[in-house]
Design goal:
The protein is mainly alpha-helical and 215 residues long. Helix content is 61%, strand content 2%. Belongs to the NqrDE/RnfAE family.
Length: 215
């Protein structure tokens, strides 16, 4: 028998595709708009949310029988705020320049509806292991979309990936720039993130007709 049962595996795999928190549940769109102009920022935000959701779901699951229902939202906010502070301090210690870029948006993890939604809908009613898997699965689903959007926005908007030129030098006119290619500055604007997410949603629903809602 494998480490994960079929039921447990679905907690990891479903959010990666058919129940993705961004493209299917339409949650967490704000961060997809805000920080995906650079691939590095997208990756760091994804890892941050992975930590907060994985650990947060476990903590809420551990506390689920002692949290009074009337203050459960406050308790959840305290947990997520504590974890976000840890993430912020780690970023400032080991990636200070990036922490300045992400400073406001790391703080907004506290109000990320994906995290609060999983605390409320899953961790409060399930055991530690399944809550951990649910947090990891949804964070990975969120992160995959952020990384895809960040990849295309940085590549087409700046001609770089992780800050490294991959299409040539636009000043010296080498690589693709030698044949007339120009960076698309619109890709660096927030609305383009929404368009890229829209394209991902269209591709996803084209491949899986079951995701198309009947009207």
């Amino acid at each position: 028998m494998g480490l994960l049962s079929k039921k447990d595996s679905k907690l990891i795999l479903d959010p990666l595709a058919d129940n993705n928190p961004i493209t299917i549940q339409v949650l967490g769109i704000c961060s997809a708009l805000a920080i995906t102009a650079e691939l590095e920022a997208s990756i760091v935000m994804s890892i941050s949310v992975l930590f907060v959701m994985g650990v947060g779901n476990v903590v809420i699951s551990l506390m689920r029988n002692v949290i009074p229902s009337k203050i459960r939202i406050i308790a959840q906010l305290i947990v997520v705020a504590t974890l976000v502070i840890i993430v912020d301090l780690v970023l400032k210690a080991f990636a200070y320049e990036l922490s300045k870029t992400l400073s406001v948006f790391v703080g907004l993890i506290i109000t990320n509806c994906i995290i609060m939604g999983r605390f409320e809908a899953f961790a409060l009613g399930n055991g530690i292991w399944r809550s951990f898997l649910d947090g990891i699965g949804n964070a990975l689903g969120y992160g995959v979309i952020l990384v895809i959007v960040g990849f295309f926005r940085e590549l087409l908007g700046s001609g770089t990936l992780l800050g490294i030129p991959v299409l040539g030098d636009p000043i010296e006119k080498t690589g693709l720039y030698a044949i007339g290619y120009e960076n698309n500055g619109f890709m660096l604007l927030s609305p383009m993130a929404l368009i890229v997410v829209g394209i991902i949603i269209w591709v996803q629903r084209t491949k899986n007709k079951a995701l198309v809602e009947d009207h």
